[in-house]
Q: What sequence folds into this?
């Protein structure tokens, strides 16, 4: 039996569900029970009936799954798969910021630790950030840690957004100059990007959305060529669903090395040995749960 079939068999025997983010390697997306963006995966994790959740993504995503489903065993096949942006804000740093702006509500991007979520009023993802900020009854909000997503949201809301200066190094690497060059080279192409890109890149986009938003937007479009302004993992499903369309990755190495740490082997090992469990101390989990649960009550933008 090949490794993919072994994993599926083992998952059935162990009553495990495999959840995978849209940036995972193709082989993992192929065998996952559910693939999605951070919001879709959180919703799925909150509904899981299985005993085990094997989360193929990065640490904050597995942590969010545990926060929502604490009675499940949550495994992250590569224990060091983290998110550098999530590491740019700590609970202590956020407490200091709150002291500087007393009473101002805190919105935290789901790309953050459980401790940071516990210090926040509400979470958001790239798929619902605009609606989340709009839902807050205050004309000022603190937004952590992604300054680019926060800046993107500020274009749509009539509120002051106090930004934390975090960013995704992978999305920030794409420059406006490169996009200009690509648009010249592929003048008939539609440029779609993730809101983690810099504001000057976002300015040039025909559409801005979460990773799953790429699938819905591109499937519906009658255009044939697309410049992809996010991590290359989305190409797997884009190509499957749109065999007649052409995709140009905005830069060759648009890859998150943390997202790419998980392999079929590490997934198999983790499932077999039930290793690399992710948990959160109960006191923090309860507070973080409140921030995530409030988020899930607000509809997504895209
Ligand atoms: P999505 O929630 O849009 O999938 O984004 C997660 C992420 O980490 C993007 O870099
Ligand atoms: Fe974090 Fe960026 Fe990787 Fe997304 S792509 S997980 S934001 S480092």
A:
């Amino acid at each position: 039996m090949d490794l993919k079939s072994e994993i599926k068999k083992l998952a059935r025997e162990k009553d495990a569900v495999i959840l995978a983010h849209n940036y995972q390697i193709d082989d993992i997306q192929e065998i996952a029970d559910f693939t999605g963006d951070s919001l879709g995966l959180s919703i799925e994790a909150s509904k899981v009936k299985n005993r085990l959740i094997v989360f193929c993504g990065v640490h904050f995503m597995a942590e969010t799954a545990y926060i929502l489903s604490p009675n499940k065993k949550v495994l992250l096949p590569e224990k060091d798969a983290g998110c550098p942006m999530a590491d740019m804000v700590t609970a202590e740093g956020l407490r200091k910021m709150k002291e500087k702006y007393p009473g101002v509500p805190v919105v935290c991007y789901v790309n953050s630790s459980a401790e940071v979520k516990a210090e926040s009023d509400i979470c958001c993802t790239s798929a619902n950030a605009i609606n989340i900020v709009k839902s807050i009854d205050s004309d000022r909000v603190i937004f952590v840690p992604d300054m680019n997503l926060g800046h993107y949201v500020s274009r749509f809301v009539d509120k002051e957004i106090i930004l934390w200066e975090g960013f995704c190094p992978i999305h920030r690497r794409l420059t406006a100059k490169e996009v200009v060059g690509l648009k010249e080279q592929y003048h008939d192409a539609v440029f779609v990007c993730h809101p983690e890109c810099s504001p000057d890149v976002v300015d040039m986009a025909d559409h801005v959305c979460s990773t799953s938003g790429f699938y819905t937007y591109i499937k519906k479009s009658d255009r044939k060529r697309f410049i992809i302004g996010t991590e290359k993992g989305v190409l797997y499903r884009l190509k499957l669903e749109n065999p007649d369309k052409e995709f140009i990755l905005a830069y060759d190495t648009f890859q998150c090395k943390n997202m790419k740490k998980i392999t079929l082997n590490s997934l198999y090992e983790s499932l077999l040995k039930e290793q690399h469990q992710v948990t959160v101390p109960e006191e923090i989990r309860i507070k973080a749960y409140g921030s995530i649960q409030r988020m899930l009550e607000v509809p997504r933008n895209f």
